[in-house]
Write a structure and sequence with these properties.
Strand content: 15-25%
Number of strands: 4
Shape: globular
């Protein structure tokens, strides 16, 4: 996705069910103009934070916690959902 999709006209991405934040990390590496959010359940958020920090992308990839069945999604130009 990070290499095939043209993110050129977008400024932000939210990966719903983002788990460790890997999709956001890969997209942020390939598209430095994007701000990314990894959204997942509250127990998962600390794991994603650590993975994102280890990748050196904490300045452009943030986390958000919630339940997509109950809570509003973070605002973003592009929303991804996979394997959730």
């Amino acid at each position: 996705l990070a290499e095939r999709f043209d993110f050129g006209r977008y400024r932000s991405l939210c990966d719903v069910g983002g788990a460790t934040g890997l999709l956001c990390i890969e997209v942020a590496k390939r598209h430095p103009h994007l701000a990314c959010t990894s959204f997942d359940l509250p127990p998962v958020e600390p794991i994603a934070r650590r993975t994102i920090a280890a990748a050196g992308l904490a300045d452009r990839v943030r986390t958000a916690a919630g339940d997509f069945f109950l809570d509003p999604l973070p605002e973003a130009d592009v929303i991804t959902m996979g394997m959730i």
